[in-house]
TrEMBL record, chain A:
<feature type="transmembrane region" description="Helical">
    <location>
        <begin position="52"/>
        <end position="71"/>
    </location>
</feature>
<dbReference type="InterPro" id="IPR035906">
    <property type="entry name" value="MetI-like_sf"/>
</dbReference>
<dbReference type="InterPro" id="IPR051613">
    <property type="entry name" value="ABC_transp_permease_HisMQ"/>
</dbReference>
<keyword id="KW-0997">Cell inner membrane</keyword>
<keyword id="KW-0812">Transmembrane</keyword>
<dbReference type="InterPro" id="IPR010065">
    <property type="entry name" value="AA_ABC_transptr_permease_3TM"/>
</dbReference>
<dbReference type="GO" id="GO:0022857">
    <property type="term" value="F:transmembrane transporter activity"/>
</dbReference>
<feature type="transmembrane region" description="Helical">
    <location>
        <begin position="192"/>
        <end position="216"/>
    </location>
</feature>
<feature type="transmembrane region" description="Helical">
    <location>
        <begin position="150"/>
        <end position="172"/>
    </location>
</feature>
<keyword id="KW-0813">Transport</keyword>
<keyword id="KW-1003">Cell membrane</keyword>
<keyword id="KW-1133">Transmembrane helix</keyword>
<dbReference type="GO" id="GO:0043190">
    <property type="term" value="C:ATP-binding cassette (ABC) transporter complex"/>
</dbReference>
<comment type="similarity">
    <text>Belongs to the binding-protein-dependent transport system permease family. HisMQ subfamily.</text>
</comment>
<dbReference type="InterPro" id="IPR000515">
    <property type="entry name" value="MetI-like"/>
</dbReference>
<feature type="transmembrane region" description="Helical">
    <location>
        <begin position="20"/>
        <end position="40"/>
    </location>
</feature>
<feature type="domain" description="ABC transmembrane type-1">
    <location>
        <begin position="14"/>
        <end position="214"/>
    </location>
</feature>
Length: 229, 243
């Protein structure tokens, strides 16, 4: 039997990998929007804070952040709990992994969204305001639909890097593909086959993502004239 | 909350001097990170120039395998690639019985192999992209003075493509600096590996990982600055005019 029946277990891991990646993407998009808004705001401290966030996060490897936030976060929770005389809850590794990866890629998304918002002609937003729309409504009706086209290429890239980063979450105890592969390789004694399967699954995720994102890019570029030589 | 003493006491560990030994007495920490980074970047760059030439070749049998190689290596996590070399190769008796096994069972050799092939894949695409971007005027000029295809590549296309690849390559170098942090997961004591060891010894998570993070951040800034200087030198002709 192929991999002594460990294939379903690895597939289960793949589902978890996708869940972690999807949830992290959500967190990172929210943080990215907050970061981009801060960077474009007239308030100096906010700009400065967002600058600090995007620079420091992107200057340190994911793995170091993961260790620091996971181990450090647990310690902080323990400290706070003992101070209040409570039993310390264990951090859920899924939540920890998602928050960590979301936090890291929020920094990349900040840069992506900042550039995309700046690429939308200012007159569009001004026209919206002139019509008496609230700033929030201008954002959702005018800015957001138009910035998607500018954000998509860099967003796609961030997503592809994010998916590959999830391979690290097994070190903080999540039962993702890499974790399942670790068990499977010890039992089956076929480490090469196991990791080739894992690699193949990652490649499949990447391929589907690229196809879907290219389709989206084409859709959002409809009606935009491409200049050819 | 942050114990400064713990940081000061363990500072030498990041520079190859653990447990009271003098600094640089072992290759732990920064030295390991830079060995891995330097070797894999050097080998990767050397591989990527010929691969990029194959990638842009009009011969399908040359271009297609290189496309597949870069697609596979860029589409999978470097950790999987590292594990395939480190754990995977032992599955084959032929590998274990060969002369190469002595080296291939070393985590260091596997890390260099995986990192090299990974960075070579990204660098190949960067350089191939810039070769395709070569201005047609440069190529026509080279042909007009009667250069052979190979001479034109060697004297005109490759030097100019390598210059234009600098900005994208600086990103790749920084990605690799951060990428080497996974070496600790196959027993190597690089910066992250040392930080993990300190954490296991002290149970203090913040100090060791903050130290490692600060060192990575410093070198990231250093590389950014260094590449800005290089761009100022080698891409000066593309900069907007200043006078």
């Amino acid at each position: 039997m192929f991999l002594q029946g460990y294939l379903p277990s690895i597939l289960e891991g793949a589902v978890l990998t996708l869940e972690v990646a999807g949830a992290s993407l959500l967190v990172s998009v929210v943080l990215g929007f907050v970061g981009a808004m801060c960077k474009l705001s007239p308030s100096k401290p906010l700009v400065w804070l967002a600058e600090l966030y995007s620079t420091v996060i992107r200057g340190v490897p994911d793995l170091v952040w993961m260790f620091m936030l996971f181990f450090g976060g647990q310690m902080l929770i323990n400290d706070v709990a003992t101070r209040f005389g409570l039993a310390a809850p264990e951090i859920n590794p899924f939540v920890a992994g998602v928050l960590t990866i979301g936090f890291i890629f929020g920094a990349y998304m900040t840069e992506t969204f900042r550039g995309a918002i700046m690429a939308v002609p200012k007159g569009q937003m001004e026209a919206g305001l002139a019509y008496g729309m609230s700033p929030l409504r201008v954002f959702f009706r005018i800015t957001l639909p138009q910035m998607v086209r500018f954000a998509l290429p860099s967003f796609s890239n961030n997503w592809l890097v994010l998916v590959k980063s999830t391979a690290l979450v097994s070190v903080i105890g999540l039962n993702d593909m890499m974790y399942k592969a670790d068990t499977a390789k010890s039992v089956t004694q076929e480490p090469f086959t196991v990791y080739m399967v894992v690699g193949g699954l990652y490649l499949a995720i990447t391929t589907v993502s690229i196809l879907a994102l290219t389709w989206l890019e084409n859709r959002y570029s409809m009606g935009v004239k491409e200049s050819g030589l | 909350m942050i114990d400064l003493n713990l940081i000061l006491e363990n500072l030498p560990s990041f520079f190859g001097g653990a447990y009271g030994e003098p600094v640089l007495s072992t290759s732990d920490g920064l030295v390991m990170t830079f060995q891995l980074l330097g070797l894999s970047l050097l080998l990767g760059l050397a591989l990527s120039v010929p691969l990029a030439l194959m990638r842009v070749s009009r011969n399908k049998w040359l271009a297609w395998p290189v496309w597949l190689y870069t697609y596979v290596f860029r589409g999978t996590p470097m950790l999987v690639q590292l594990f395939i070399f480190y754990y995977g190769l032992s599955q084959f008796d032929a590998v274990r019985d060969s002369w190469a096994w002595e080296y291939l069972q070393e985590a260091y050799v596997c890390a260099i192999l995986a990192f090299t092939l990974n960075t070579a894949a990204y660098t190949t695409e960067i350089i191939a992209g810039q070769i395709r971007n070569t201005h047609y005027g440069e190529i026509e000029a080279a042909k007009a003075v009667g250069m052979s295809r190979w001479l034109m590549m060697r004297r005109i296309v490759i030097p100019s493509a390598l210059r234009r690849a600098l900005p994208a390559y600086s990103n790749e170098v920084i990605m690799m600096l951060h990428g080497t942090s996974i070496a600790g997961l196959v027993t190597l004591a690089d910066l992250t590996g040392v930080a993990r060891r300190l954490y296991a010894d002290s149970y203090q998570p913040f100090e060791p990982f903050l130290m490692a993070g600060a060192l990575y951040l410093t070198f990231t800034f250093l590389f950014v600055w260094l590449f800005k200087r290089l761009e100022g030198r080698y891409l000066a002709y593309l900069a907007p005019r200043k006078h």
